[in-house]
Amino acid sequence: MTIDDHLRLAAELCDRVVFEGDAGVLPQADRALDAVEAALVLARGRVLHARFLDEHVSDPRELVLFERAAELYEAVGDTRGLARARFHAGTFHQLVRGDNAAAGAEFARARDLAEQAGDDLTLSYALRHMGVVAHQAGRLDEAREHLEESTRLRRAQGFPAGVAANLVGLAYLAHAQGRHDDTTALLDEAEALALSSNAHRIAGQIAQLRANPQ
Fold first, then answer.
1. 163 occurs within a structural domain
2. Tens place of pLDDT per residue across the chain (214 aa)
3. CB 128 within 8 A of CB 94
4. Number of separate domains in the chain
5. 58: domain CATH number?
6. Left (φ > 0), alpha (ψ -120 to 50) or beta: where does 77 sit?
7. 0.85 surpassed by pTM
8. Host domain of residue 65
9. Does residue 144 fall inside a structural domain?
């Protein structure tokens, strides 16, 4: 159901109480609005995270919003939404707090939930960030495996900017493993995809790696 569907249902259920005296439908109305609130607080958390990426100033409300979204999605039985909320909580731990242990646990949970829900896009995000955790821990083969699977999913989803971002990560791994021809090929494809999808931030990362491969 869409947000509009949930709101419409809640309104219809309220009318049943007012006109028919059927107060037994109110818990269903609450669940419908919980689903709406979950989507809203997740979106607010994402806005705060995007602002952090741009301004490098953290906002403690970000994690609170993601945890609230997770609580609500779990309460209404929305596995897909719960996977997304747990993933975004992981990005907070990873990128804002620099806590890869906490982040890794969240990403693993998001991966499992996304697999249950059949949500390949969220799964691709979880695997990408699990790859980053593994890379930073020096587990390069594991990192490559996660990123390659994430890239496969993103290609299937028709998500060129996401593929480009992953190829940059794979290029860093190739360079670290001494696979210099692979590094060049990965960056060439990443650049073409980034430019074709207006992924200017990713294009900047590519330029930075070409200029300073260390």
1. no
2. 888 898 898 899 887 888 788 888 888 999 999 999 999 999 999 999 999 999 999 999 999 999 999 999 999 999 999 999 999 999 999 999 999 999 999 999 999 999 999 999 999 999 999 999 999 999 999 999 999 999 999 999 999 999 999 999 999 999 999 999 999 999 999 999 999 999 999 999 999 999 887 6
3. no
4. 1
5. 1.25.40
6. left
7. yes
8. 3-126
9. no
